[in-house]
Amino acid sequence: MLKVEHIGIAVKDLAQSIPLFEKLLNTPCYKTESVASEQVTTAFFRQGDTKIELLESSSPEGVIAKFIDKKGEGMHHIAFEVADLEVEMQRLQNEGFTLLNPTPKLGADNKRICFLHPKGTNGVLIELCQEIKPGE
Length: 136
Ligand code: ZN
Fold this sequence. Notes:
Helix content: 10-25%
Distance between the termini: 21 Å
Strand order of the largest sheet: 2-3-4-1-5-8-7-6
Bound molecules: zinc ion
Structural class: alpha+beta
Strand content: 35-45%
């Protein structure tokens, strides 16, 4: 894996959390994006070489709404950038990790992504992501 690409934080209300994190990080939110397939709206902040991704559920049935119901707001996942998503997915599967999606899916911020089941990673939800290059 190349680096921590971003850290995902589940929030109830982006309208409140965006200005809060702008103050905290002293940097403006540079993008918000809805991912319909995940029933989530995201907001991104650059922090050095990595990013913070705030996640608000766009539906009471979405995974983020369910996460907040169970655990409250807070740390949701750590995303690692990889050079080749399929190769890394295969490697981790061979090592015994459970992939939550067997094929890559489209994520926010121009990425193809895959999640690992947190039961196999000490309770931490791990996202693998690879940037989609123009022409792909
Ligand atoms: Zn993420």
